[in-house]
Amino acid sequence: MSADAVIDARDVRVEFGKRREAMTAVNGVSLVVGHAEILGLVGESGSGKTTLARAIAGLQAIAGGQVLIEGTQIAGLRGGRLRRMRRRVQVVFQDPHASLSPRLRVGYLVCEPYTIHGVPRDERRRAEELLDAVGLAPEIAGKYPHELSGGQARRVSIARALAIEPAVLVADEPTAGLDVSTAAGVLNLLSDLRDSRGLTMLLITHDLNVVGAVADRIGVMYMGELVELSEADALFEAPRHPYSRALLGAIPVPDPTERTPGVPLEGEIPSPRDPPAGCRFHTRCPMVHDTLCATETPALSQTDQGLAACHWWREIAASASLIAEAPSLGTRDAGTPTQ
Amino acid sequence: MSTASVLEVSGVDVVYHAQSLELHALRDVTVTVAPGEIVGVIGESGCGKSTLANLTLGLLPPNGEIRAGSVVLDGTDLVGLDKEALRRLRGRRVALIPQDPLQSLNPTLTIGRQMADAVLAHADRRGRNGGELRRRMAEMLERVGIPDAAHQLSRYPHEFSGGMRQRILIATALLLGPPLLVADEPTSALDVTLEAQIVELLRELREERGTAIMFVTHNVGVVAQLVDRVVVMYAGRVVESADVRAFFADPRHPYSRALLDAVPSHRRRERRLATIPGRVPSLAQLPVGCAFADRCPLAASVCHAVDPPPVVDGRSVVRCHARDPRSGWQQAPGAA
């Protein structure tokens, strides 16, 4: 797998704060993303998905583990070597208006990465090519960011990220705040860019419908840990982790004759400064069972269709319904956790 | 509906004055909300959803002018009322559940203080002793799912999570028992799990109290799950209004259909999502004819010349020549 790995994150840890105040935002996450693959990262606010993505983009120092981009480790790189590495990974930030300087014209903004990375270019021609690649007319180059609509600003951010031809595009909530039709256009664009340029993408969102539309594989995060990782189709059809099930079950069904299947999850994510013992999800898990969940942390392990971190994934797999109710778990000895 | 409506907006034109321009934010808008009814208002940004919400709350900005029509809220026409009279209606006749729970709470004041302020600003001060008010606030917080409420009143907004803050705002909106709530994208800042909790709460509150809700959103899934009737706005007009089941089974207006088709769903994973070409026209320079014609897959020559009048069919209203038997509109061969 590693031969083809564009992103190879191994046991990544990110910590914020010091000593007593310390909290672990990302707790030992490993994942591999291949060439021209789109990996979606989902989870509630505070699950660590953005922090993990920032660590992968080299924007966030890591406290443990390794991040390899095209085989090169990025932790510890400085100066020119770090800058060269950053050319391979570009980020499209969540709020395009906050990441585009209001005083500069679009034509300059999309070519700014050339200046930063010292790449010679014919600015006007390149700006037009880039804008064309994201479906914008060349006239846009003469506008200021405040003259752009939300969808246009998002496309300009993407054009800018494409300028120095990265291998990896990290998109943080690329459709937040956009109207449905505009959002659909941006998602189509990401899909096209993957096909035309062979871009590898990490797509961070809390909207499962968005990842469902474009991602090949989906990673589900909870309290800084990856709790499930599998092919998008498999995840949507039959999630193996109760948290994934709860997330999917909470998506409102766009059909008034059908009720959203899930019983809403109780409560909210616990404080990351004081994570629950055992499985971090056990305090909210509708399938919490016995003392095992409260005492032993389930490892992210192979299931029939991917990876999941739940002691009870086999029982979940055996119960067909997506409804977030506890399947009968009584038959198994609680003392034998799934490895 | 023959029963008295909580809200009856009829034939309203609203214009915003911006420098030398006039923006036609609402054009001949008619919307009614029956007691206990949940009406979902959808449409892209710039179609007039928020203007309709603000109008209902008597909160049009100073550059907004109501050119025509009436806004009858629980028996009182808001048009022409002064600020003071409007302030007195808010809270008791209609209340707002805002979009962003954090921005709507003052970080330097306790929850209890802010809830009390909301009550005292809109209600008669006589007969409101502090203890009685505190007890009612605590009860309301308990009702919206905040445990140990009496204690929580003396805490500050930052001590609550986003979902809890939204619950606090819902409790505050309910304190004076208004028959109508206006909810402006109340779940768009929340995660899907919290959104599901809030939708469930609003559904329960409607059942228990018969509170009607005007729910402004762009989330089609929430609309399908929560509302009784859907109002679709486009370029300042109501282009379609229908019962939720009829709407999802057969959206009549081409814009409604396009909106539903553009929503990504994990249930029908497709390589390409449908988009609506072009953009909402500028409200300062509306085209002649139907405002949607330039983006419409069905548009015929009549659409570019004549603005379609509303076609009423039972409980549904649609403004589209293609749906109007009187228009003599001919569908182009091969069009959907």
Task: Give a verbal description of the structure.
The complex is a heterodimer of chains A (339) and B (336). By secondary structure, chain A is of the alpha/beta class. In chain A, 32% of the residues lie in helices and 20% in strands. Chain A has 12 helices and 12 strands. In chain A, the strands form 2 sheets. An 8-stranded mixed β-sheet of chain A has the order 6-7-8-3-9-10-12-11, with helices on both faces. A 4-stranded antiparallel β-sheet of chain A has the order 2-1-4-5, covered by helices on one side. In chain A, helix 4 packs across helix 5 (123-133) and helix 6 (150-162) packs parallel to helix 7 (180-197). Chain B has 336 residues and is an alpha/beta fold. Chain B folds into 2 domains: 1-93 and 178-280, Rossmann fold; 104-177, no CATH class. In chain B, strand 4 and strand 5 (76-77) form a beta hairpin. Chain B is globular, with a radius of gyration of 21 Å. Chains A and B meet through helix 7, helix 8, helix 9 and helix 10 of A and helix 6, helix 7, helix 8, helix 9 and helix 10 of B.
The CATH class assignment of the largest domain in chain B is Alpha Beta
Counting DSSP H or I runs of 4 or more residues, the number of helices of chain B is 11
Instruction: Give the uncertain stretches of chain A in residue-range form.
Output: 322-339
Give the chain pair forming the largest contact, with residue counts. A-B, 42 and 46 residues
Mean pLDDT of chain A: 86
Please give the order of strands in the largest beta sheet of chain B.
Answer: 6-7-8-3-9-10-12-11
Largest sheet of chain A: 8 strands, mixed
Radius of gyration of chain B: 21 Å
From the 3D coordinates, which CATH architecture of the largest domain in chain A would you assign? 3-Layer(aba) Sandwich
The CATH topology of the largest domain in chain B turns out to be: Rossmann fold
**How many angstroms does the end-to-end distance of chain B come to?**
33 Å
* Beta-strand content estimate of chain A: 15-25%
The total of beta strands of chain A comes to 12
Helical coverage of chain B, percent range: 25-40%
* CATH class assignment of the largest domain in chain A: Alpha Beta
Number of strands of chain B: 12
- Number of spatially distinct domains of chain B: 2
Low-confidence stretches of chain B: 332-336
Structural class given helices, strands, pairing of chain A? alpha/beta
CATH homology-level superfamily of the largest domain in chain B = P-loop containing nucleotide triphosphate hydrolases
Order of helices and strands of chain A: EEEHEEHEHHHHEHEHEEHHHEEH
